[in-house]
Design brief:
By secondary structure, the chain is of the alpha+beta class. The chain is 25% helix and 28% strand. It contains two helices and six strands, in the order βββαβαββ. It has a six-stranded mixed sheet.
Amino acid sequence: MPEFHLLPSAPQPVAPFSHAVEADGWVMLTGQMPTDPADPAAPLPDGIVAQTRQVMENLKIVLAGCGLDLSHVLQCRCYLTEFERDYVAFNETYQSYFPADRRPARTTIGVTALAVGALVEIDMLAKRP
């Protein structure tokens, strides 16, 4: 049976979803926005670097709520609203969260818009050891 994780420590969902769903040791994390977990009404951080950091920190909260961390992440999907403008700065920030020899598989997609007016959203697939 799948386990549905809705974590009180994680950012308030911006749509009807669970923060993560787990089955057979696989943990699928819903894409996180650059919202402040302590104040969902706060303005989003300015710029792709600050928003990428907040998204990654929010994902770390969700992983921790499931008893995992970034070392358990196998794949990421990243969505950017300003792909050509933000791709290089996004990559510089994103790569700082993973050792060079342990980076997850990744797809990065340019999109026309994201919830809450965000510049970036990232979802993840993790696996329990």
